[in-house]
Amino acid sequence: MAVRYISGFGNSFETEALAGALPVGRNSPQKVNYGLYAEQLSGSPFTAPQAANQRSWLYRIRPTVRHTGRFEKVDHGLVRTAPALGESDLPIGQLRWSPTPIPKRQLTFVTGQFTMTTAGDAEAQAGMAAHVLIVTKSMEREHYFNADGELLIVAQENKLRFRTEFGVIEIEPGEICVIPRGVIFRVELINGPARGYVCENYGGAFKLPDRGPIGANCLANARDFLCPEAAYEDVEKPCTLYVKWGGELFRTKVPHSPLDVAAWHGNYYPYKYDLRRFSPVGALLFDHPDPSIFTVMTSPSETPGTANIDFVIFPERWAVAENTFRPPWYHRNIMSEFMGLVYGVYDAKPEGFVPGGMSLHNQMLPHGPDTDAFEQASNAELKPVKLTNTLAFMFETRYRQRITKYAAELPTRQDDYMDCWKGLKKHFNRKQRKPK
Q1: Is 131:395 a contact under the CB 8 Å cutoff?
Q2: What angle do CA 370, 372, 377 make, to 5 degrees?
Q3: Residue 223 CB coordination number (10 Å)
Q4: How far apart, in whole angstroms, are the C-alpha atoms of residue 107 and residue 131?
Q5: Which residues are marked as active site?
Q6: What string of H, E and C letters represents the secondary structure of the chain?
Q7: Extents of the domains making up the chain
Q8: I want to staple 321 with a disulfide (CB 3.0 to 4.6 A). Which of 225, 256, 283, 309 is the partner?
Q9: What is the pLDDT of residues 176-191, one digit of tens each?
Q10: How distant, in Å, are the alpha carbons of 101, 102, 221 from that of 158?
């Protein structure tokens, strides 16, 4: 059966897998067609302003109170939740990791998340965590939801299928999937073991950034975001439901599939986006613009213009600026940057930063192009150049990102990362005003 989607982002949608399953003119009639139960899933307080109010009505075979029995606490593995202080004694500094190898042991979406960094405080609903995701086994009669945060999943190697309460979503490298807080789902492999990255967002839900002077077009367009059409399971077989709640992992037994929603309507739902549809803007004459122009989505904070999280990408694009150092400049930033490479080569780090790898440039710690990138960009003939077959991303937050014990002790951590700047030479000459 083909996976079917509805186009748009931030809109209120309605979809039904059975004709007439959606009530007309009311949300909760005395009796719903087909003997379904009406249930509301709220992603915001009831009294949130209309523009920020998120909720969906689900019409399901059983209400979710019948999907949860008695919970038991289970080992949460290598998943950590902020604040996770004191995990590592590693001194501050610029950090980079090679790709995490995909092991032979069985890992599902639940057991295959490994936390690299945490930031902020989940209890205060602020900040984030960055996880490596490795899946070698499909979830079979197992389901999961996260009560601590919204999940943004970046596919890096092979495809993943998300069977959710709202319908089915499939992603491949170059695409992302966002699962809102509280939505039940399971994850299946499609074409072999998969690797990716997960941003766990404790704060406000991701939304499109305000474009400001850019205007109504370019960057990410709402029409390119896809949410699933309703697709339900009426399966009377025992299942296990895992719940991440307050940084702990719990498990309960369910006598049937919890993915039993025959129809839904609202504006709180999972969705996918193809990052290759992002329409970048940039400098047409001189200077390298701020990386914020590559923001796909933002999780806002209470301070205007200061993000809880910005999700930023560096896709294929033309470089045409004249008399300009074209790669990102050297800088120190109040925001902290967790970066990954999906495929290709990143122009500021042509060596050492490879697909599946990661880097962390924390708050106010300097970073920028490595020696080779600096020398090449400083001396290149500045013709128009198209950067092709490249896709990097950044989870950027206003909070410090604390690395976990797992991240500090990973064999893939590059102890020599700092050496990439070692060859930067002193070019200062007070007698030579103009560069050669």
Answers
A1: no
A2: 95
A3: 11
A4: 14
A5: 288
A6: CCCCEEECCCCCEEEECCCCCCCCCCCCCCCCHHHCEEEEEECCCCCCCHHHCCEEEEEECCCHHHCCCCCEEECCCCCCCCCCCCCCCCCCCCEEECCCCCCCCCCCCCCCEEEEEEEEEHHHCEEEEEEEEEECCCCCCEEEEECCCEEEEEEEECCEEEEECCEEEEECCCEEEEECCCCCEEEEECCCCEEEEEEEECCCCCECCCCHHHCCCCECCHHHEEEECCCCCCCCCCEEEEEEECCEEEEEEECCCCCCEEEEEECCCCEEEEHHHCECCCCCCCCCCCHHHHEEEEEECCCCCCEEEEEEEECCEEECCCCCCCCCCCECCCCEEEEEEEECCECCECCCCCCCCEEEECCCCCECCCHHHHHHHHHCCCCCEEECCCEEEEEEECCCCEECHHHHHCCCECCCHHHHHCCCCCCCCCCCCCCC
A7: 278-416
A8: 283
A9: 999 999 999 999 999 9
A10: 14, 12, 25
Q: Which amino acid, residue 405?
A: K
Given this model, what pLDDT does residue 434 score? 81
Relative to beta strand 113-121, strand 402-403 is: antiparallel
Contact 214/168 with Cβ under 8 angstroms?
A: no
Taking residues 148-169, report their average pLDDT. Answer: 98
Residue 404 token pair: 């976990």
d(CA 268, CA 180) in angstroms, rounded, equals 7
CA-to-CA distance for 167 and 262, rounded, in angstroms?
9
Residues contacting 140, CB < 8 A, separation 6+: none
Beta bridge partners of 318: 386
Which token pair is 260?
């039993």
Q: Cα separation of 61 and 59, whole Å?
A: 7
Name the token pair of 29.
């009639």
Tokens 């719903």, residue located:
32
Per-residue pLDDT of 199-244, as tens digits, reads 999 999 999 999 999 999 999 999 999 999 999 999 999 999 999 9
**Amino acid at the residue 208:** L
User: According to the CATH classification, is domain 278-416 in 3.30.1310.10?
Assistant: no
